[in-house]
Each structure stands twice: as C-alpha cells, then as structure tokens.
Amino acid sequence: MPAPKTQDLPPAGGYQKIKFARVPAKTLFSGFQIIGAYVGITSFAAYIYYLTYKQIQREEIEMRSCKLALMPMLIAERDREFLKQVRKNRDEEAKLMKNVPGWVTGTWYGEPIYKTKPKDYFDEGTWDDLCVHSDYRTSALRQNFHLWN
C-alpha cells in the first residue's frame, strides 16, 4: 500500500528571522591617515629616484658615447659586406652569361644601363638586385629582419 502524501511545512517554532540590518565595515584608517601615507610613500620614492637619477644619466651618456664610437666601424663593415655581395653578384653574372654571345657583364647586351651617367658611376640598386642570386626565402628573411627589432 502506498505511503500517504504529506505536505512540506515549516519547522516547529517557525523559521529564523532574516538578518537584513546594515553591517558597516571596520574603518582601519581614517582619510587623513591614508592621505598622509600616500604623501609619505610618494616623498620616499621621489628621494630614491633623485639618488639614482645621476647614476642613470651617467649610464645613458656612456651608452651614447659607445654608440657614437662604434657607428663608423659598423657602417664601414656594412659597406664592406655590401661591396663583397655586389662583387659576388657580378662574378655570378659573368659565370652564368659566359656562353651568351654579345653579353658584357654589367651591361644589357653591350649597351650601358645608365647612358647619362659617367663611367665610374656606381648605382647601389634595390634590395632585389642585391639578392638576385639567392632563393626567395633567404631574401625575404633578410629584407624583413629590421622589422623584428
């Protein structure tokens, strides 16, 4: 035989009272204490900054003078590598085109590329001219290398 259904009723004596009264948070510091602490910490930090500022300035001057001393050498090395690559390209062109009749290295079938420029004029060309004999991946990596700094 099934059990009789019973209704869910409140416990005897009723439910507890709902606590809805406002409970204010403890005030650990007053406003003046917080402002005083802010001023004190800021003053201490400014003093520490003042003590280290002169050392930072000296280090910046030293780094700047190192850069100024090294830049001529670095530029000369860059130019030297550039000229070595141009020479490699010229030698490669001479080797590739040695069987082509009428081909003179540095010209277009004997015609100078720059007709209005003097004979001793050197054109640096584009990046693609510099990397003409390398594969595309190497050229693209070198071309975009400065973007990674």
Which spans have pLDDT < 50 for at least 5 consecutive residues? none
Gross geometry: elongated
Secondary-structure element order, N to C: HEEHH
N-to-C CA distance: 85 Å
How much helix is in the residues?
40-55%
**Would you tell me the structural class of the helices and strands?**
mainly alpha
Report the mean per-residue pLDDT as an integer. Answer: 87
Largest sheet: 2 strands, antiparallel
User: What fraction of residues sit in β-strands?
Assistant: under 5%
Number of helices: 3
Number of strands: 2
Order of strands in the sheet with the most strands?
1-2
Rg value: 41 Å
Structural account:
Strands 1-2 form a two-stranded antiparallel ribbon. The longest helix has 66 residues, at 31-96. The chain has helices spanning 31-96, 127-130, 136-143; strands at residues 107-108, 111-112. Helices cover 52% and strands 3% of the residues. It starts with 30 loop residues before the first helix and ends in a 6-residue tail after the last helix. It has 149 residues and is mainly alpha-helical.
List keywords for this structure.
single chain, 149 residues, mainly alpha
Task: Summarize it.
With 149 residues, this protein is mainly α. The protein has helices spanning 31-96, 127-130, 136-143, and strands at residues 107-108, 111-112. A two-stranded antiparallel ribbon has the order 1-2.
